Amino acid sequence: MTALRDISPDASGRGVGDGAPLVPAAVVGYYDQPLLKRPHWEASVKIYLFLGGIMGCSGLLAMIVGDGDPERARVARNARYTSIVLATVCPPVLISHLGRPERFLNMMRVFKTKSVMNMGVWGLLAFSGVAGAGAVGQLARDGFLPRWMRILGPTWAVNVPLGLLGAFISGYTGVLLSATAIPVWGVGKRHIPAFSLCSGVAGASSLASALLVLQGGSERMQHKLVALERVAATAEFALLQHFRAYAGDFGTPMFAGKQGKRLSTWTMAIGILGATAIEALPVRSKWKSLLSAAMTLTGGYVLRDVLIEAGKDSADDPKAAFRQPE
Amino acid sequence: MPGLGTTFGRGGATTFVQDLENADCILIEGSNFAECHPVAFRFVMKAKERGATIIHVDPRFTRTSAVADIYAPIRSGSDIVFLGALISHVLESGKYFREYVDAFTNADYLVREDFKDTEDLDGIFSGWEAGENLNDSSILNAGTTNSGDASAIDGNKHSAYNRETWAFELEEVPRYDGNGTVKVPKRDPSQQNPRCVINVLKRHFARYTPEMVEDVCGTPREKFFQIAEALTKNSGRERTTAFAYAVGWTQHSVGVQYIRTAAILQTLLGNMGRPGGGIMALRGHANIQGATDIPTLFDLLPGYMPMPAVARKEQTLAEYLGTNTKPTGWWANTPKYFISLLKAWYGEHATAENDFCYDYLPQLTGNHSMMSTTIAMKDDEVEGYFVIGQNPSASGMNGELTSDAFEHLKWMVNIDAYETETASFWKREGTDPTTVATECFYLPSAVVLEKEGTMVNTNRMLQWHDKAIEPPGDTVTDAWIFYTLGKMFKAHYADSTDPKDRPIQHMTWDYEHPDAHERAKGEPSIHRIMKEINGYSVADGTQLKTFTELKDDGSTACGAWIYTGVAPDDTKLMSRNRKADDWVSLEWGFSWPANRRILYNRASADAAGKPWSERKKYIWWDEAQAKWTGVDVPDFPVGKAPNTPAKPGASGMDAHGGASPFMLNLDGQAQLFTAGLLKDGPMPTHYEAVASPVKNALYGQQNNPVAMEWRRSDNAYNGTDNPDYPYVLTSYRVTEMSGIMTRYIPWLAELQPAAFAELDPELAVEKHIRNGDWVTISTALGEIEARALVSGRLQPLRLGKGRRIHQIGIPYNYGTMGHATGDSPSNLIPFVMDPNVSIHEAKSGTCNIRLGRRPTRTRTVVDEAVPQHKPEGQPSLHGAQRDTPGA
Amino acid sequence: MGNGFFTDTTLCIGCKACEVACKQWNQLPSDGYEFTANSYDNTMALGATTWRHVAFVEQPVDEHDPTVNRWLMMSDVCKHCTNAGCLEACPTGAIMRNEFDDVFIQPDICNGCGYCVPSCPFGVVDLIPHQHGIATTFATDGRTNDDAVQSHGGIAGKCTLCYDRQKVGFDPACAKACPTESIQFGDVDELKDRARKRVEQLQARGVAGARLYGVDETTSVGDLNAFFLLTDTPDKYNLPERPVLPSTRQRPGYTSAALAAGALALAGFAIFANGKTE
Ligand SMILES: Nc1nc2c(c(=O)[nH]1)N[C@H]1C(S)=C(S)[C@@H](COP(=O)(O)OP(=O)(O)OC[C@H]3O[C@@H](n4cnc5c(=O)[nH]c(N)nc54)[C@H](O)[C@@H]3O)O[C@H]1N2
Ligand SMILES: Nc1nc2c(c(=O)[nH]1)N[C@H]1C(S)=C(S)[C@@H](COP(=O)(O)OP(=O)(O)OC[C@H]3O[C@@H](n4cnc5c(=O)[nH]c(N)nc54)[C@H](O)[C@@H]3O)O[C@H]1N2
Ligand code: SF4
Ligand code: SF4
Ligand code: SF4
Ligand code: SF4
Ligand code: SF4
Ligand SMILES: [Mo]
């Protein structure tokens, strides 16, 4: 045995040698304790927020582009396939975050307009239904299914509901965050849903353009997609900047420190400005388009990640919780 | 609590907690009422809601202080100065309750001419007899004070007083029946004579001034006056003040005198025996009151009768009754209670011819209290030890000496609900189990919910509880263990012819359980035991209704006279009563004696028997019915008119007049001056604790000159003003923790998960201690570690001569076992014994503190304890010299 | 209408009987044994397995006389809000308002989505770690730890206002255990009247800062069925000065989402509008 058992304090990490001042600084509220509880959401929820956004906006894209001519039809077709693929991926991702996954269906025992999450589930269900129908029709048209099955998902019947539901799906997640007590989310009740949606559209269109490039599809369509992507990304950028100013201290967890750095590097610098710059390069290469798409999508994911993490830090700040944003 | 016993006649709390609600002011001192008695504290809060002033005087600002109207800090170990100054204040200002004092106390008695006060002898009273004071376990301390016994003179090796001069001047008066004269205390109703008790008292406390309070207690003067104002304003005819204390006052080498001081003050204020008044002695463990009534104390028999003692020459029944039967007052009944007790224990074998088997009782040969016995153990004078529901290794003083003493035993039996630090002393830190020869037995015991029985709470109230669940596994009840042992002994000695085995052969032991199932398990019938305790007529076994039915001719048997009436017949058990009204609730439980709730309640009426005031009406004399009536059971002969004259020379209660409420005292009066009843003085005197940061500012005599000490290397003392130990150390409880039971309960353990030490921010900064740091607290005895809790609730005190004193407080509830663990302060506190009740001094000591954890414990105690002789010339008038610390 | 709590902090002696009684009745696990050195508070906050929590606030009140202290004690609990963020947020309807007008989580329905957690403006409700069990049987007779405890980790936990006890006419365990009547249980309206009188009485006695929290509130959360009498500002007790009902942010949220979608759709149509290819 050592003569003097280690003089440092126990597991609680408090005490000797921790450099804390002898007379501690004045505490905020109750021993600097958080007032609010941290959201328990981890990767699965972040991924859902990201994919859900792209899924919904792909539907929206299908509606926007339409099947007016073969060039458009190909884009719309890609978008519909994207929607159905993601619509099959999202639910398992969502369910995996539940404390009691086997009770996922309990979400459907009520139709509760007051609960954004409940609305989201119903929305997801409806969207998947339409996307499914659309996919069946498309498969039939593409000859993977008997021809008669086309009538199960005629484009004229699918595109519009798919677009509207898609808009909802990629929009509600922002509302879901804002409609909590987490200060940084609450103060963003107008911004978050909007820039989430923009980011979704940017993501969906960049994905679509990437697919088109890979298929060696129409350059003209690809340019239009990029144009739409740029519009959405620019709006997203503007909204984020405005949010930063508007949120003030409430915004600190999102715009300062670690999260702030990740946001400005990955989402703003690379995902938006970077992608735009690359697109602007006067070279014609499919790699250019693929790279910019990748950057946009990455920026989109980091945005969701930063949102959730900032929410957790915001919950830890009692000052923000004492006087909560309206 | 002889502090109360010697003043009023009985040791128990004089009131019941529910009545605190009626107080106009409550002084809580020496107790952390809210934290240690939270449920009872309900009634303090109710009083507060009714506008009463709540006062808390404590070294620390506690959860009690938090809801008190006035909080005053005080240095541990200095309360006699504080209370003495209050006494002096009410006497000098004449703000005491004159009519009450004149009627019900011995204020006008003349004290003997040759009595010398501490005033005259610089801190000691007349009659001092120095001893060699090398304490060993053969100190004789057999006097029991609760029964008002004064006859025991310590024929012992240690310093003591010859208390002969602590008495009243006697005068001859004609006997009531005309034939001859009788000696009674001389009185001066005019109270002019300087030797009148009230004047002696005035002089004695004259030097206890507000200035002294500031200098010695560190209590700001304005706080003192605030409190004095509140007490006097709320005492008298119309209003009453209640005092509440617990072990913050008792655990001192002068402990009994703390309570004496409070008793004198409450008497002067005229609050005794009245609603919303009295002294609430808050008892500790759930059944600690019961454990003093039917005592686990070495020097008492059930019902506060003394244990026969060699030194008092009580070889025969006649001798015993001779010394312990009082000529006057209630204790004239001793023979009835004592002989009934012998009948209860030895049944038909106890006859007048054989002195009712008196010689079966052991005779005290010395002080066999816990600490003396532990020392004897360490010195290989004790072979075996039963530890039942106690955890001395953690909660006793000098835990290391205690645990080490266990290693000197041949065997030890531990009966407990949990594995305690005591049960596991052989594997404690720094001990190699293979070196411990003691054979250890552990018997798991049932806890309260797993057995039926009676507990006696702080209201002296017996309450029955049923069994809620079966004890788990091998667990058995304590009753089972002792009932079974008894049967085994009886079987073992059944056909012995050796006279020394007769006590066992003749012991009554028929507690067979009527229920076959329980009988099969070997459980005794608690009801049969209760019947024996209650008492019954030997002839036909009918149970007695009150102790006045007890006889001294062997026709009645009774296990504890004060409980008689709790089981008035086979079908009734008063302790089961659960009918409450919103106040006295006579039909809830059963309070001894005779279900009286406020003791001495005759004093709630004036000398003429009229209530002091309509507002404070309680018990009064009803002319029409010619009896005492009221809301409680009168604590007085019901038919004895207030104007009944005292009959000099008559025996028993006849000697008392109709205006003497304190029936158990010789003269029926409250004793402002106690004639030799206590071993350390007839009036309280401030002495510093054996370990104190300061010299006694009032007298040359530093400590209680008859406190018992063990000066040996394994019981080292810090001494006085020892620069190595500059801070005051005190220990206490926290609400969340009790003993080991709570440490094992996760729901409680998480609330106070670690041993901690409370200290003031100024000291913390000085010692570079941050809140939450590990700190090591040390005394001459050893070191313990704890987490620092730096709080403004503790404050440095400014004493006389600008001396600044820091106090450090440590909860005593911790130990190495359970979920919430930590060092117990018992490893810091040496054995010191108050001379009257052999209590330790856990509440006031000195220590040092430093940042960081202590070294791992290796054996600190040398197996051969080296005696540390004291300097010559007892008692020294210079504390420092007297108190050279041990090795 | 409705049963709730009036917790009068001026009567609290910090004995924590309420905290323990709650854990005992609901068979909640201990939260571990960490010494915090924050006054006498070692559990620090309400949580998934701490449904009553006693806060301790030490305050010097007079810098000239440091012996004059104030030690505030307050037993916190779920507020059972009239407009409950947790209840509105719950997508499964597991959180309901029961017949006693209390906010109750149905343990057999909750699927642990965790949405109620950030939706409580008072930071009360939280998810119970999987390894823990809590009492969920509402049988009061012959109730033992074992039959009461089912493993319910992974769901949300908070004060039930002793729904199971109320159903059989018992007072909540915490209120029952409180020795000083600091926790008063009963009809909320009666409690409110009592509380208003109490505040007047205290102010008359010169108790600084005596005020009600959760009565006659103007916030979107509205009044609280478990309200408090405080003697300092709410933040000292870790309570929000202005709690906001999260659902009030839904309308603006949906609106701006719709606007953004619309705007982008238009932009899209514009971009893809021109010229068919032949
Ligand atoms: N929660 C809980 N309750 C208990 C117990 C327990 O372990 N836990 N134990 C029970 C038992 S066995 C007992 S005996 C009682 C004890 O009941 P109390 O005596 O009320 O409890 P303690 O905490 O030992 O001491 C009371 C106060 O005395 C103060 N004090 C120390 N020295 C002095 C002094 O010299 N003068 C004055 N005026 N005050 C001083 C301490 O700061 C402490 O606040 O509690 C009983 N109740
Ligand atoms: N430093 C310091 N030391 C102190 C004090 C202090 O204030 N300061 N206070 C002193 C005081 S007042 C007291 S009372 C003592 C208390 O000292 P102890 O009585 O030794 O302390 P407890 O831990 O309460 O011990 C009670 C034991 O009884 C066991 N038990 C409970 N129920 C039963 C039962 O039904 N049967 C049996 N056989 N066992 C049972 C429990 O498990 C526990 O181990 O501590 C004293 N020590
Ligand atoms: S532990 Fe028992 S005795 Fe002590 S306060 Fe609580 S109820 Fe009363
Ligand atoms: S306090 Fe929080 S958990 Fe309780 S009802 Fe209100 S919102 Fe729900
Ligand atoms: S965790 Fe349970 S209670 Fe909370 S919102 Fe989800 S389903 Fe409702
Ligand atoms: S009402 Fe019941 S569940 Fe709620 S805190 Fe009190 S005891 Fe716990
Ligand atoms: S039980 Fe009552 S007094 Fe004790 S802490 Fe809880 S609220 Fe306060
Ligand atoms: Mo005790």
Biggest interface: chains and residue counts? A-C, 88 and 79 residues
Structural shape of chain A: globular
Average pLDDT score of chain A: 92
Number of extended strands of chain B: 31
The number of helices of chain A is 11
Strand order across the largest sheet of chain B: 24-26-25-31-23-29
Number of helices of chain B: 25
Question: Unreliable runs of chain B, pLDDT <50, ≥5 residues?
Answer: 133-157, 869-887
Rg for CA atoms of chain B: 27 Å
Counting helices, strands and paired strands, the structural category of chain B is alpha/beta
DSSP summary, beta strand count of chain A = 0
Specify the biggest β-sheet of chain B.
6 strands, mixed
- pLDDT averaged over residues of chain B: 92
Percent of residues of chain A in beta strands? Answer: under 5%
Protein structure class of chain A:
mainly alpha
Question: Helicity range of the residues of chain A?
Answer: 55-70%
Which small molecules are bound?
Answer: ligand MGD, iron/sulfur cluster, molybdenum atom
Assembly type of the chains comes to: heterotrimer
Quick tags:
heterotrimer; A: 326 residues; mainly alpha; 68% helix; globular; disordered N terminus; C: 278 residues; alpha+beta; four-stranded mixed β-sheet; two-stranded antiparallel ribbon; 8 helices; 12 strands; binds ligand MGD; binds iron/sulfur cluster; binds molybdenum atom
